[in-house]
């Protein structure tokens, strides 16, 4: 894999006081003049988070694979992705790239190789900046290991030799080690401050809460990869730190929204009390980050005021009214909150449901008065408290604690005014019903594919080529993406995983 050497660090734009880009511009700064002040460390951390946002706002092919939809536009490339079309996914022009994650890790390496040069920086501020670096590092490896399994672990900004991949278990341990260090170094969200001692309110910055959520997911994924009960216990422990009141002094306060309506109106907007970690998308980013939600293509009328009701038929994908009704039992308040006027004949003509989970759009306008959609005026929520309840429920049922799993599942059902488990329509398999609850609660938030993989439901919950995969295919890496061809450039140590190598012509 090719390494990127940064001789010039950052050109930063001024933005709002809460923004990740809130710093005076610095032009033409080189290594010789950098890493001398706290503001220099702060600038590199801001660049880390800017790169992380670029990496994590891209909707991944696996997120498309896992979308719970009934209709996909005829001939759409998304059909090929969702059906595990190996020829399409191996084509160089179609491959998912890991470059953005390694670009971010390059900045992290640069920081850790140079931060000690800074003079007269208070030790607690050094810990804060190092904690941000560890958090960003852990997030990158978390995404890499879920998407590609075996992946490269970088060796610092001065390393210019070839790289081989490390096993997924080692990548996970690297991410866990970084996340644990982040948890130790970082304050609670309420204690985040910049170099001017001003509160940071963006929920993209690492803090104890976001590190705990990341650790819960890392250990849950490691339990899937390695098969260890101890990892399930760790995942349960870290999820509990966000759920249980006794940990609030340590981790911070996160609370569930009152109801699904509040989830849509506030949690899916930005900076709610339920949100633990989210990507900051601000006014200046509206044109750059227009498509960053897995369900973006489903959002139309009435949210998008420039579209008519029947335009929904031209979307890349959609869910039928019947599909929504099969997903959400009668009385489940998420049915009416997540979708617009399902029972109104005026909104039934297309046969498709109108997504209403994300409600804030931003528009551009010409001098002549022409208006167009610029993008959604929301942050992308990555981790929220409801996710932690249901992840803990999943871990508990796998640990043979059905009572604890049922209790967590029912907290989320009770919030949604849905019937408590077990209820009519449930399968009776508690693990599967928890999976289905995550599908409902976290609908279109990007979790479903990874939930499918963790629980081993690829044959029944995915489509096309996934239905034909054998256990051996999965062991050989079929549920991961192929390593992109760019990673092989001038690097004879790089190898493709076994499944995808067998499909290459």
UniProtKB/TrEMBL annotation:
This is RagB/SusD family nutrient uptake outer membrane protein. Belongs to the SusD family. Keywords: Cell outer membrane, Membrane, Signal. InterPro entries: SusD-like_N (IPR033985), SusD_RagB_dom (IPR012944), TPR-like_helical_dom_sf (IPR011990). It holds the Pfam family SusD_RagB. The keyword Signal applies. Residues 77-190 form the SusD-like N-terminal domain. It comes from Butyricimonas hominis. The keyword Signal applies. Residues 375-500 form the RagB/SusD domain. It is found in: Cell outer membrane. It comes from the Bacteria.
